[in-house]
Amino acid sequence: SFNEFFNADPDRHVAHGTTPSLSIFCAVLFAAAWLLWVAIDLAPIPAAADADADPLVGQAGTVPHPEEDLFELARHNKYVPVQLRLPSVVLLLRQCSMLGLLLLLGWLNEYHPLYPHSDKEPDMDWFLFLTAGFVAIALTTATKSGDSSVLNRNQTEEWKGWMQMQFLMYHYLHQVETYNAIRIYISCYVWMTGFGNFSFFYTKRDFSFVRFWSMIWRLNFSVFWLCMAMNNTYILYYICPLHTFFFLVVFATMRIYESANHTEWKIRIKLGIAAGVMFLCWEFDLIWSWVWTWLPTSPQLGAKHGLLHEWHFRSFLDHWDCSFGMVFALNYPMMTNWLSTLESLQPVKQYICKTTIAAGSLAALALWYNFVYFLPKFSYNAVHPYTFFIPLLSYVYFRNISPFLRGYNLDLLVRMGKITLETYLLQHHFWLTSNAKSLLTLIPGFPKTNFVATTVLFVVCSHTLFRCTMALRAMLIPNDPKTSLKYLATMVAGAAVTSAITYALTAIFPDGVEAWAIALTAVGIASLVLGLLVPQLVTAHQDESGSQLDKSRIWGVFGLASLLLLGFSYLVQDTGLRAVSHEA
To answer: What percent of the residues of the chain are helix, what percent strand, and what percent coil, each to the nearest 5?
Structure first.
């Protein structure tokens, strides 16, 4: 039953303090979305729609020419804000249904797996073999990027890609010997948050609500739905609150007294003040406790010593990363100008200058490696915030030491880097299970074959979640701030209505909401929405194409899909799956 699954871990509800009603909310919402998608997408089959269209990641803001078809735009990686047009609604429902399917699959992996979860088995030989194999394959995908600038977009994605591979293998094999290296990788990620967002605000000067909301969406959309569906806490997926917090730090630093951003000294004073705040809050326990006193100290899932302790542990390790990234970004133009001047010199002079810098960098790296890198975990954590920049700057220098190296990227790593957030999140439920404590098992008794099978599933689902996130962002966050606020208000209203219905269900079924009740509720919601939506879609489609949609066919397909959903709910009921709404 749901009750057994949610309480398989004896500490889960004691630490969590929330109820599976969040999962019921997701079940009702996405079941209704699936019914609407089936009825609207499969029933009319308008001539303008290509049934084989594969919507990819899009960009917001481009309104199509009347003659252009939204499906064709989706095929070319473009999405536009959702409109009351048949193709637009279909594309929205496709993405929502795909998101719901991913959440359902992750939920089944956690609470109703095909086979019992497996234990992790540390194996350094396997870790090194996989690392070497991954790098060897990545080398075969070297491509000329056409951009030889320092830290160009493909290069940073490549950087994230190989770090993420190591990060994932550390979790999969529980390879504690690599802990200190993983800490450096996380600092590099946070450093890039400071560097990338400072560079954007410095050059684009875009502090609009649309930009802010788009970034918050990118960082938190997927984790929001995972927390809802899996009944998990936000801090469990700690990378998301970490990056969100430091994005807010960059945004506040650049937005406050914006006119100083392009002065010689005032911007440096602003960065100094921001760094001073970091210093005071994280270096003095008394100030830390006062600033963050509102965080709970009771045990939670993902924070067994309390959220206050967990947030201090996570953020202290990286509290200087963002500030250092912003300082680097501020001086980036001068650094690139210096590098251009250096590379305009005669080859011998270039060689001497670059070799001298390389020698100093290697000497610093060797000292760090010898005296810091091999420290025990807690001793290393104490010095990490003050030493992480040594390997980071060394990598940046050697990766960009020549125009040739800057002009090439390993495409496999670039692609991996683009879905870093999704692979981090879905590893908990599609590769690992029990919130990264055990392994998903699809082929029991064959651990390496199972590794291959689960890895394929994991990567495909991560890429799909990335596409859903970006496509829905393009459709639901228009470039116009007022329109964007209207879309946000509509989403909040829809969530409020669904929450009220979920609350009613849990009140009617205090001992557990049956699967058939969830399915019947979804059918009712979808019927109401369809009744309001169909007349408007029929009118819009007739005005646009001159053809008439067959409303009876839409309702016929909807009725059939509703029967299938209700039948599935009874089948699920027979297996003992029940959604309980009370705490253990």
So the answer is: 70, 5, 25
Q: Can you read off the two tokens belonging to residue 423?
A: 């692979």
- The three-state secondary structure class of 579 is strand
- How much is the mean pLDDT over the chain? 88
121: left (phi over 0), alpha (psi -120 to 50) or beta: beta
The pairing of strands 408-410 and 432-433 is: unpaired
Q: What is the pLDDT of residue 583?
A: 35
Name the burial class of residue 176, with classes exposed (0-12), middle (13-18) and buried (19+) by CB atoms within 10 angstroms of its CB.
Answer: exposed
Max CA pair span of the chain: 81
**Could you tell me if 254 and 199 are in contact, meaning their C-beta atoms sit under 8 angstroms apart?**
no
Give the H or E element holding residue 433.
Answer: strand 432-433
What six digits make up the tokens of 558? 């909807």
- Find out whether 47 and 547 touch, Cβ atoms under 8 Å: yes
Q: What is the pLDDT of residues 360-371, one digit of tens each?
A: 999 999 999 999
Which residue would you say has higher pLDDT here, 10 or 279?
279
More confident residue, 144 or 15: 144
Which residue do the tokens 């009351």 mark?
84
The answer, yes or no, to whether residue 49 has pLDDT greater than 70, is no
**CB contact burial 191-204 (16+ within 10 A = b; e otherwise):** bbbbbbbbbbbbee
* pLDDT the model gives residue 542: 72
Alpha helices in 317-446 (DSSP H): 321-343, 347-368, 377-387, 389-399, 403-406, 411-418, 420-426
Give ∠ CA 378-381-386 in degrees, rounded to 5. 150
Are 87 and 49 spatial neighbours (Cβ–Cβ below 8 Å)?
yes
Could you tell me if 421 and 219 are in contact, meaning their C-beta atoms sit under 8 angstroms apart?
yes
Each as own residue / partner, the long-range contacts of residues 203-212 (CB below 8 Å, 24 or more positions apart, any chain) are 205/258, 205/261, 207/251, 207/254, 207/255, 207/258, 208/481, 209/481, 209/484, 209/485, 210/477, 210/478, 210/479, 210/480, 210/481, 210/484, 212/251
Helix (H, G, I), strand (E, B) or coil at 69: coil
| Phi, psi dihedral angles at 149 (to 5 degrees) | -75, 160
For residue 509, the tally of other CB atoms under 10 A from its CB is: 18
pTM summary value = 0.90
The label of the residue with tokens 């509720």 reads: 521
End-to-end C-alpha distance for the chain, whole angstroms: 13
Amino acid code (one letter) for 349? K
- Report the amino acid identity of residue 424: Y
Over the stretch 465-476, which tens digit does the pLDDT of each residue have? 999 999 999 999
Could you tell me the pLDDT band of residue 73, with boundaries at 50, 70 and 90? low
Could you tell me the pLDDT band of residue 530, with boundaries at 50, 70 and 90?
A: very high
At residue 433, φ and ψ (nearest 5 deg) are: -145, 180
Tokens coding 492:
């909040």
CA angle 457, 418, 120 (to 5 degrees): 40
Alpha-carbon distance of 565 to 557, in angstroms, equals 12
Using an 8 Å Cβ cutoff, are 80 and 73 in contact?
yes
Torsion of CA 264, 280, 197, 314, to 10 degrees: 160
Token pair for 390: 């040594």
- The pLDDT of residue 534: 87
